[in-house]
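Table S2 (text version). Query chain:
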Amino acid sequence: MSANVDLNNRPDYDRVLQDIADYVLTYTITSPEALNTARNCLMDTLGCGLLALRFPECTKHLGPIVEGTLVPFGARVPGTSLRLDPVKAAWDIGCIVRWLDYNDTWLAAEWGHPSDNLGGILAVADHLSQKRVANGEAPLTVRAVLEAMIMAHEIQGVIALENSFNRVGLDHVLLVKVASTAVCAKLMGADREQLLSALSHAFVDGQALRTYRHAPNAGSRKSWAAGDASSRGVRLADIAMRGEMGVPGVLTAPQWGFYDVLFSHTNKDLALKPEGQRQFSLSQPYGTYVMENVLFKISFPAEFHAQTACEAAVTLHPQVRDRLHEIEKIVITTHESAIRIISKQGKLANAADRDHCIQYMTAVPLAFGNLVAEQYEDDFHAAHPIIDELREKMVIVEDPRFTREYLEADKRSIANAIQVFFTDGSSTGQVVVEYPIGHRRRRAEGIPLLEDKFKANLATRFVGQRCKQIFALCKDQAALEATPVHAFVDLLVI
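Corresponding structure-token output:
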């Protein structure tokens, strides 16, 4: 045989893909803690989406591609009257739940927001439930939605434990696409081959670059990236369900596979990583770990690495509010990933730039005692020059312990500390907040606040009676799990 031809032996599917498929198809969820946390996550996620509908920059994206499109058994977008095909509905739901940078968070080598997967899950489940009833079959229940959320959280989060995508220049919404593909394919009734095919295409498909989250290009794409990724998961699942073949060696193929193309080089100098780091490292099997340990973004619509800094700033506000012009220096002590991701100097170009700037997110609550989404907007920023004056006085310091405990499995802290120094030589004490209020270690403190936030967000779209009806159902684990998905979504549309 000639020496210049390729040996064409088609491989079996990569083990990583097989493990995901087998988890989705065979694992039985029994953890009461995971199911209860998923219920709270559902409330929080939907509430964040409803709140985002106040912002025209968000709502401009919503609705059918072709105006007037009618979709039988179309999936609905909560807080609206839209009825769309499941792919576009997934895009719209993902867009609204991510827009304000609220939501649950997972912190590991790669961070992310696992509830971003709700766009695909809810769109597919709503459509299928309606279609089943129309065919005289039993509807899907919200229990199926909660189970899909748990599995999507787990896939996204376990892959993130030891694998950093931002360090190779990729954005973490890749994990949303992969997880949404897996659970949406399952909801659609995929067998193992179909599920493997869909997952393989999720990796072949091209991945989002990290550029849009970082200075000097930070912008609002980060607010719809989740919708884009989750909807792509729905589309790929649908393609596979139509019988499309997969790409079995998508990760491991020499030269052409994901590992060699996108995971083998550092993003600074394109140097090759050590060989053992050129493929995924998976430290534990899939179960319910991620949902049980997820962090809720309860308090502030802020990039998560700044959550505890915001809380510390709110605590300091009474001590500094009448002395803002006497401040000489503000020292923010933080962790490595916060410095790498959200520490910025200079002009901030837009709201998305501001909600990814630890200095801005600290300055606002120091000056005003709180941080809400409207305070990122151009008009607010322009009207309050004190924000930039405070930013210019900030010094960022890394605490190695904060950096270390961010990644320790029994802690997963997200620590920040703030101390303010005045021109007369006096200073405040250093306020240290190591765990945000949405952390598992502060779960008992956080859930009542999550519920209050959900009720307030419901009230931005629905009359009081409907708000009470939705909240009462969401509070009742058994009743919610037994509710048909389409009946649940009926309560959430205008």
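Notes on Table S2: The longest strand covers residues 327-334. The chain has 22 helices and six strands.
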